[in-house]
């Protein structure tokens, strides 16, 4: 049995993997690892190290969970057998994104949080999926379950993100990156920079946005099986 420990993205829970898991073979199992409730990146990494087996693991991270998985691998490469980043390029946050997060945190602090708006959820999907109500409902449901406290914690803890591409280049851990061609949260500049670095195999799924595991679950599952099974 190939076990893969999976870190979700901001305001996502184990439902992120449910449909994709149905398309996996009997010999592949996704193990959900919730984002630790810690206020710093190092705190989250230390918490995960206590949860994960001491022997090297297969590690998959989606979005913010992808950055967290990459940071853990950089700091403790002996704990990771192989790594897959989904909808994340292991780069730092641009200044514009940091400013947007500060605005969001200030807004929540003064006015509270009433959940992710429909338009924001739609913007995380590819063009052909933006009117798919079950997908939008799932994004909003995961967000509602985690709530305001988790949002503030996750945004705050992930504000400081040093670029990790150079650090990953120095490792011997196999790395794969999977992204949607219509993921507007990943810049074309950083996509090309990652490809040029040759730090990882980079695969892209056409007509898919940021929420790849729920938007294209069958294709996501195929890439997961193909990558991890090929390295057994």
Automatic annotation (TrEMBL):
Alphabetized SUPFAM superfamilies for the sequence: alpha/beta-Hydrolases
Sample GO molecular function, one term: hydrolase activity
Domain AB hydrolase-1: 41-213
Keywords, sorted A to Z: Hydrolase
Record Pfam families: Abhydrolase_1
Protein name, as recorded: Alpha/beta hydrolase fold protein
Species of origin: Marinomonas posidonica (strain CECT 7376 / NCIMB 14433 / IVIA-Po-181)
């Amino acid at each position: 049995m190939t076990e893969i420990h999976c870190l979700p993205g901001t305001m996502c829970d184990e439902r992120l993997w449910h449909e994709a898991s149905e398309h996996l073979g009997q010999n592949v199992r996704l193990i959900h690892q919730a984002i630790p409730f810690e206020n710093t990146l190092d705190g989250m990494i230390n918490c995960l190290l206590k949860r994960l087996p001491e022997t090297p693991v297969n590690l998959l991270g989606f979005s913010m969970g992808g950055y967290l998985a990459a940071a853990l691998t950089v700091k403790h490469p002996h704990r990771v057998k192989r790594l897959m980043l989904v909808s994340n390029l292991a780069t730092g946050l641009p200044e514009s994104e940091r400013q947007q997060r500060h605005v969001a945190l200030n807004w929540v602090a003064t006015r509270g949080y009433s959940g992710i708006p429909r338009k924001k959820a739609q913007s995380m999907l590819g063009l052909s999926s933006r009117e798919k109500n079950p997908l939008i409902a799932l994004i909003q449901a995961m967000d509602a379950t985690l709530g305001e406290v988790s949002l503030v914690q996750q945004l705050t803890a992930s504000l400081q993100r040093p670029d990790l591409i150079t650090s990953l280049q120095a490792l011997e851990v196999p790395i794969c990156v999977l992204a949607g061609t219509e993921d507007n949260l990943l810049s074309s500049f950083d996509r090309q920079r990652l490809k040029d670095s040759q730090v990882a195999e980079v695969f892209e799924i056409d007509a898919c946005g940021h929420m790849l595991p729920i938007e294209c679950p069958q294709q996501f599952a195929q890439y997961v099986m193909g990558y991890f099974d090929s390295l057994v």
